Amino acid sequence: MENKIIEIQNLQKNYRVGTEIVSALRGVNLTINAGEFVAIMGASGSGKSTLLNILGCLDKPTAGDYWLDGKNVNVLKKDQLADIRNTKIGFVFQSYNLLPRTTALENVELPLLYNPKISIKMRREKAEHALEAVGLADRMKHLSNQMSGGQQQRVAIARSLVNDPVIVLADEATGNLDTKTSYEIMALFQELNDKGITIGFVTHEPDIAAFTNRNIVFRDGRLIKDIQMNKITNVVDALDQLKDEDTLLDEFVNVCVA
Q1: pLDDT value of position 186
Q2: To 5 degrees, how large is the angle CA 8–CA 9–CA 14?
Q3: Structural domain contains residue 26
Q4: DSSP-derived 3-state class of residue 77
Q5: Is residue 51 part of a domain?
Q6: Can you list the positions of beta strands (E) in 104-239?
C-alpha cells in the first residue's frame, strides 16, 4: 500500500480584501505519496503559493482537511505546528535565506538548534553529512558571500535535509539562477529523489517541471491538471544539450568576428 505523505480534501482558503472575499483555493483534493517528485505549477495568482504555505504549516485553510504523514494538521496548536515545521518539513526558497556572516556548516546546523534531542557533536555530524550529500564537502567553512548562487542554494537544500524531513517543499528554488545552474540544482533534486526523498516543487517554468515525475497545475484556485510524467527529462542529458548549444553559439560568434 502506498504511503501517503500528504493528503488534502476539499481544501479552501479565503482572504478578506476590503469588503470582498477572495478565494485563493477552491475545494482542492490532492494526495502526494512517499518518493514522489511533484511540480506544483500555475500562473501568478493561481493558488500555488497559498497551497505551499498550507502544506508547509505556515498558514491554515479556511475549510477542508489536511493530513501530513498521517497527522491531522488542522487540529494542531501553534507549538505543535512549529515542531512539525522543524522535524517533518524541509524548506527551500528562491532567495536562499542564509545568514550572511556564518559559514555553510553553521547555516545547515540552524534547524537542529531547536531540537533538544540532538547533541552538539551530532548536530555537527548531521550538518556535515547533509553538505556532503549536496556536493559541498569542500565549502563547509565558507561564508555565504564567498559562494556562488548555485552553491548558496545547495547550502539551503542541505539545510532542508538535515532534520530528515518526510517532504522537502521548494518554492521557485531555481528562480534566481541562470539556466545552467538551474539545471544543476534540478540534477541534485533528481538525485535526492532517486534516494527516496519526497519533493514538492513550486515552479512556473515548464522546462523545470519536466524534470519531475508528476505535474499538478493550478488556475484560479483550482487544481485543473494532474499529470503523471511517463517520460521524465534527465537533467544530465539536458546539461549536455545545453553545453552543445553553447559550443555552437561560440563557433558562430567566432565566425562572425573573423
Answers
A1: 94
A2: 90
A3: no
A4: coil
A5: yes
A6: 167-171, 199-202, 214-219, 222-228
Q: Which amino acid is at 167?
A: I
129: left (phi over 0), alpha (psi -120 to 50) or beta: alpha
Q: What CATH number corresponds to the domain at position 179?
A: 3.40.50.300
Q: Say how many Å lie between the first and final Cα of the chain, rounded.
A: 64
| Type of residue at 198 | T
Residue indicated by cell numbers 548549444: 245
pTM: 0.89
Q: How far apart are CA 82 and CA 96, in angstroms?
A: 20
Domain annotation covers residue 128: yes
The pLDDT, as a whole number, for residue 244 is 59
Count the domains in the chain. 1
User: 244: buried, middle or exposed (CB in 10 Å: 19+, 13-18, 0-12)?
Assistant: exposed
Cβ 49 vs Cβ 225: under 8 Å: no
Segment holding 228, helix H or strand E: strand 222-228
Interstrand relation of 199-202 and 4-17 (parallel, antiparallel or unpaired): unpaired
Q: Residue 133 belongs to what domain range?
A: 35-63+73-257
Point out which residues pair with 115 in neighbouring strands: none
pLDDT at residue 2, rounded to an integer: 66
Give 10-residue mean pLDDT values along the chain (258 residues).
Answer: 87 91 94 96 91 94 95 92 92 91 94 86 95 94 92 95 95 90 93 95 92 95 94 82 60 47
